[in-house]
């Protein structure tokens, strides 16, 4: 049975009404914005995100990809990659008339929705650059992965089960990566200004902010991936 069909069959009537209301990328983003930002060291399937009403960027991207699949888009995700002083950040991608946009769950205001106005993925990812920073005010975005189509995980029921999510995380670690900055560019980067710093943290869950000097811990069941 296809993963989407399994997902649909698992929904209660009230859950079905919620899902039926999510018919555009912006509505999907608006729903993600209502979720509590999770600091849990675990992954949630799209079904569990719906039921727990919480999630971090990995959970939110998979939920958005599941709903994208439901409304006719391919379920694509992309991982934005920082230096070693920040967390990575996952986007759910969509494309309209040849232009890329994105939906995301984030603890930072500026790392969420993007309209489909970007000609390629590099343009899309670079639109997040100034808002991708840590609590030391360092701009940390350095690259991104190519898109991953989650259809290949349908046989594992990734929309309703937690176990396949480790395989998705592992696959993201394996696929081709693209760098954004050269060494000289990195050496010239300025610290973030106070206004942008404070604006980006509006409504954030302080417990979920990455501490640059900590040792990264992989989430439960994963060998080398941080959230």
Q: Tags for this entry?
A:
globular; 9 strands; seven-stranded antiparallel beta sheet; 17% strand; disordered C terminus; two-stranded parallel sheet; 34% helix; alpha+beta
Give an overview of the whole structure:
The protein has one domain (3-203): Roll (C8orf32 fold). The protein is globular. Helix 3 runs antiparallel to helix 5 (57-70) and helix 4 (46-52) crosses helix 5. The protein has nine helices and nine strands. 36% of the residues are buried. With 227 residues, it is an alpha+beta fold. Strands 3, 4, 5, 6, 7, 8 and 9 form a seven-stranded antiparallel sheet that branches. A two-stranded parallel sheet has the order 1-2. A hairpin with a 6-residue loop joins strand 3 (76-82) and strand 4. The longest helix has 14 residues, at 57-70.
Short description:
This protein has helices at 3-10, 13-20, 25-34, 46-52, 57-70, 121-126, 163-174, 183-187, 194-200; strands spanning 36-37, 54-55, 76-82, 89-96, 99-103, 114-118, 141-145, 148-149, 177-179. By secondary structure, it is α+β, with helices and mostly antiparallel strands.
């Amino acid at each position: 049975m296809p993963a989407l069909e399994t997902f649909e069959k698992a929904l209660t009537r009230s859950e079905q009404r919620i899902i039926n209301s999510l018919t555009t990328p912006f509505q999907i983003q608006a729903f993600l914005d209502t979720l509590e930002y999770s600091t849990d060291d675990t992954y949630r399937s799209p079904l569990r995100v719906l039921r727990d009403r919480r999630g971090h960027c990995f959970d939110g991207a998979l939920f958005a990809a599941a709903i994208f699949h439901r409304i006719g888009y391919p379920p694509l995700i992309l991982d934005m990659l920082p230096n070693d002083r920040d967390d990575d950040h996952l986007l759910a991608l969509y494309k309209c008339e040849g232009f890329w946009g994105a939906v995301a769950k984030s603890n930072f205001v500026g790392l969420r929705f993007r309209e489909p106005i970007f000609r390629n993925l590099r343009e899309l990812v670079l639109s997040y650059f100034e808002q991708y920073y840590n609590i030391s005010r360092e701009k940390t975005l350095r690259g991104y992965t190519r898109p991953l189509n989650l259809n290949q995980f349908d046989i594992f029921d990734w929309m309703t089960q937690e176990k396949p999510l480790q395989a998705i995380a592992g696959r993201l670690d394996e696929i081709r990566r693209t760098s954004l900055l050269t060494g000289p560019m990195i050496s010239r980067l300025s610290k973030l200004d106070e206004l942008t710093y404070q604006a980006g943290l509006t409504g954030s869950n302080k417990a979920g902010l990455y501490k640059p000097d900590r040792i990264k811990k992989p989430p439960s069941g994963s060998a080398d991936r941080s959230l």
